[in-house]
Amino acid sequence: MYPPAEPYLVAREKVREFARAVLASHPIHLSVDAARAAGYQDVVAPTTFPVVVQEHTLAQLLADPDAGIDFSRVVHGDQRFTYSRPIVAGDLLTAQLTVSSVKNLGAHSMVTATSAIVDESGAHVVSAISTLVVRGEGL
Amino acid sequence: MSVIPRVAALAVGSLIAERSVTVTRDSLVRYAGASGDFNPIHYRDDIAREVGLPGVLAHGMLTMGLAAQPVIDWLGDPGRVSDYQVRFTRPIVVPPDAGVTVAISAQVAELDADAHTARIDLTVTVAGERVLGKAQLRVILD
Fold it and tell me: Do A21 and B69 touch (CB under 8 A)?
C-alpha cells in the first residue's frame, strides 16, 4: 500500500471538459440546473472520470524503484470502476493505491492495482482498479 | 427530468442502445488534455512507429469513456452506474485524415427485479472487430 495521494478537488469546468472529451452529452454532466433537478449538488462526473484521480496514485507505483516497473513496457490490460456514490463537482477526493495482485505469465507480468477514492469525510466514493500488463524484456 | 427505465419493463437480451461515433486525431488531443494522459503514442506518428505500433492509437480510456455514453443516455441519470469494467483487447489505430468509426451496441445481460439492477453488456467494434472484451456496466433502475 502506498501513502494517500494529494487531495483532488473536482472542479465543475474540469467535469465539463472531461465530459466533452468522452462525448458524454447528458445534461447532468454539463448543466448545474439539470444536475440539481435530478437531486445532485452539482454536475456529475462521467463514469470514467475517476481515472484522473487514480492517475496520481499510478504515478507513485510507476515511480517506485521497488516495484521495478518499466513504464515503456506497460500496457493497460483492463479497467474497472466500482462506485459507492457518483462524483460531483466540489468533491475533495483522496486516492490510495494498493497492489492487490501480481501474476507472472511467462515473460509477462500482470499487476492489479486498486485505488480506493474517498471523500473529505473519509467515506468511500469509488474504487478504480487497473490491471497493467508489463511485457517481458526483449518482447 | 429524465424517465429512468423500469426493471419490470426489460428483458434479458434486449438491445437498449446502438450508436456509431467517429474518433479523430482531434478527439485524441482533446482527451489527452482533459485526462492528463500525454503519452505521445496517442498523437505522434513517429514515436508510435518507433515503439513498434501500427500507428497512433486511441487512449484505451477514451474508448472506455465513450462506449458507456449510449447506456448513460438510455439510463437518463449518470449517477445510476454502480460499476463499469472493460478489458482492452485490441488497440484502435486512428489515421490522421478521416479518423475511425467505433460502433457500440448495448444489451441487457442480467436483471435483478428485487434489487432493481441490471448488467448491461457492450459490444464495441471497429471494422467489425471487437476492441473491448468483458465490457459491462451495472446500473440501478426504477
Answer: no
